Amino acid sequence: MSEAALTLEGWYALHDFRSLDWTAWTAADDEERAVALEELNAFIGEWAGVEEAKTGSSALYSIVGQKADLVMMHLRESLEELNRLETAFNKTAFAAFTTKAYSYVSIVELSNYNSGEGGGDPMANPHVAARLKPILPKAAHICFYPMNKKRELADNWYMLDMEKRKELMYSHGLIGRGYAGKVKQIITGSVGFDDWEWGVTLFAEDALQFKKLVYEMRFDEVSARYGEFGPFYVGNLLTPESFDEMLKV
Ligand code: 76R
Which NCBIfam families does this chain map to (predicted)? Predict the structure, then answer.
């Protein structure tokens, strides 16, 4: 049996995608919309305190295309908290104007492929801790997609020995590092939690860098030979102003 990579886990993650029922929203009267917005803003207004208390982080983006209209990405300390959050949203008057589009449950994950130096408590390393419990950047764009590593007879990631996987992941990391400062990635593990093995969430000021990075990685053996990809969601940061503008009738 090949040796499993050691993983470190941080905050639990929920990517909650919703679509707006524009017919109902535009047909509602001003009073109904005002109540819905008030409840929505109260819900969103709690996120800042959670970040300050360092017990989680949330981000809100619109989604381009017909797969969804918006995504709320939440990082929290437990699945219970994620559950409470989605339920709290569902109870707002605003939720009555939305439908569920997609969701993804996972946990922030770091693996030991490139960690090199052993020993010591990795959680005591502030860089590691910051990556496991990241404050989501308020970058202009988000890109999310789930993925697997292949388990086919000829190309089975899970049958490769540790040394080989380390070597392959080293090359993966090198490409990634070429995008330092342009793309921030958060890898979340979802084996046992959702339908794919990982969620990949990327943040960038320039959305074109998503295409450049993902395309370049396709030529790297880890992705070219072993990567399998789910649907891609791409979107724009929703600030209080741009969200107001989006919902204005
Ligand atoms: O964490 C680290 O920085 C160490 C190196 C590293 C690991 C272990 C790393 C670096 N990644 C790691 C693990 Mn990654 N990553 C992806 C995708 O679209 C595709 O082809 C793949 C989707 C992107 C875009 C990306 C970006 N990475 C992983 C894993 C877990 C693998 C496992 O355990 O088997 C997956 C699924 C995955 C996928 N990766 C980087 C990046 C970037 C930008 C980096 C450089 C990070 C940095 O140095 O700042």
Answer: PRK12276.1
Question: How far does residue 19's CA lie from ligand 1's centre (Å)?
Answer: 29
Domains identified in the chain and CATH numbers: 7-247 (3.30.70.1030)
pTM, two decimal places: 0.96
ipTM of model: 0.93
- Alpha-carbon distance of 15 to 9, in angstroms, equals 17
CA distance 113 to 161: 12
* pLDDT 10s digits, 175-215: 999 999 999 999 999 999 999 999 999 999 999 999 999 99
- Strand ranges inside 25-156, DSSP E: 56-63, 70-76, 98-111, 141-149
215 HSE (CA, 13 A, CB side): 5
Atom 21, ligand 1: which residue's CA is nearest? Answer: 223
Q: How many CA atoms lie within 13 A of 135 on its CB side?
A: 9
Q: How far apart, in whole angstroms, are the C-alpha atoms of residue 39 and residue 175?
A: 43
172 lines ligand 1 (CB under 6 A): yes
DSSP-derived secondary structure letter, 192 = T
Cβ 9 vs Cβ 73: under 8 Å: no
DSSP string, 118-152: --S-GGGSHHHHHHHSPPPP--SEEEEEEEEE-B-
- Which residue in 82, 113, 70, 90 sits closest to 234, CA to CA? 70
